[in-house]
Amino acid sequence: MTHIELSLSPLAPTPLAQSPLEAGMTDPLERWAASLAKAEESGLVIDAAGIIVAASKPCARLFGLSQPAELTGRYMLDPEVVYLIDFTAAGNELGESEREKIPPLLALTSGRLARGLMRVRTGSDNRTLDSIATPVRQDGEVVGSLSFFAVV
Question: What CDD domains does this protein map onto (predicted)?
Answer without folding.
Answer: PAS
